[in-house]
Hints:
The protein is α+β, with helices and mostly antiparallel strands. The chain folds into two domains: 27-116, CATH 2.40.50.140; 146-189 and 224-485, Bira Bifunctional Protein, Domain 2 (BirA Bifunctional Protein, domain 2), CATH 3.30.930.10. The chain has 15 helices and 16 strands. The protein is globular.
Amino acid sequence: MLTYLYVFTAKKVYLLFNYEKMKLNSVKELLNSDKYLQEVHVKGWVRTFRSNRFVALNDGSTIKNIQCVVNFENIKEDTLKRITTGAAVSVKGTLVESLGKGQTVEVQVSDLEILGDSNPDEYPIQPKKHSFEFLRENAHLRVRTNTFSAVMRVRSALSFAVHQYFQKNGFFYVNTPIITGSDAEGAGEMFKVTSFEHNEAPLNEDKKIDYTKDFFGKETNLTVSGQLEAETYAMGLGKVYTFGPTFRAENSNTTRHLAEFWMIEPEVAFNDLDANMDLSEDFIKDVLQYVLDNCKDDLEFLDNRLTQEEKTKPQAERSDMSLLDKLHFVVDNNFKRVSYTEAFDILRNCKPNKKKKFQYPINEWGVDLQSEHERFLVEKHFKCPVILFDYPANIKAFYMRLNEDGKTVRAMDVLFPGIGEMVGGSQREERLDVLKEKMKALGIEEEELWWYLDTRKFGTAVHSGFGLGFERLVLFTTGMTNIRDVIPFPRTPQNADF
Length: 498
Ligand code: 4AD
Ligand code: MG
């Protein structure tokens, strides 16, 4: 008995002594712990405070909250009043088995300190359902909701999985420039970078802006793609990838376009288009499997959210697959590979085209496919991800390899249900003369891309790569519907808040 008392007292003294220095526990750690009756210390934000007794605390480490049960005797009346939704608090107490519904453990609070108050009359994120429009206006606080914290944790996991995939497969990570003088895609959708004051730019003899006097001595812009620079690195390092921000000044106010988005661009020497298609499929499946294995709680929550959202839609528009079904479906099935010409035939003869239901009718070979066509192929016709390849040369960028037919190029787009284009890529034109001719026809100056042409002059080789829009991948993985909701602070036309 005496020994027991001694050990008990010694433990208390030890704990008291170490209380201040106690390691901070994360909510995730505590919820997964079975070490009952331990003293714990956790900090987070109050989600709800019920019956003046139950604090649902979240610290971002997991979608789940930990219940902290306040003990009136230890907590001052004044402190109790300050436990409001959104407040930051520090909680010390004992981890115990919970008898309540919905959790296995809870914290019996012995000490609660308010770290930061949150005035309930002003705090916009109340414990109720908010519209995504409202939350976009409060993008600085929306990560404190279940949906956005889940999306952002999945985004982080995906981004880790991207690096892991390439690193384990012998790729090197290359950081291509954000400020560049070239327009890789030739679409002219670029944001200018200049240090000239507006309206005070010096003019040359032709009354045009004299960029030789600008910061870089030439016209520069924010990059639309790191591809051209990545190609030069693939021709030395073999297998490379970029993962960085890209910028497009296209005025597309859709749920799939951002003016600033993150792109992943692998580039591989000696890969032809088939190998490029294999890589894109293997890569996407691998990163999706990673989140299926590592983001179970978040995916389960997002799966539920989507199911609820689907229920609000008319029967005909509802998806018959849950989010988890869709992810498993992609991982477990082969992507369908179809040439542009085959797809064109399917589209020309399909019901919506014949009944003039498409906004852009399909009648002549060579037309660019719009999102409505891509989605028809993927969602209605093939009902699986599709890789379209061998597109007409005149709707694709200058750097794609010309086929023997002289009218198609070795391009590929990976199309996904609900998203449309997830990936755009190609085998690159490695023949100097053909490339020069192509550039000439499109009015691209050789002097502008002399360094790019050098790769074709010195040790040129077959090579391929693709670009995957990271936010579109996050969109698909999380089952969200608007690309603005899968990047912390979206940049879109008329919107650069925060
Ligand atoms: O098809 P894109 O324009 O291809 C390229 O930029 C090539 N240089 C890539 C390469 O071969 N290395 O863009 C690639 C992908 C698209 O498939 C799409 O997923 C995404 O980037 N993307 C956008 N994502 C969000 N907002 C936008 N405005 C996007 N534009 C393209
Ligand atoms: Mg594209």
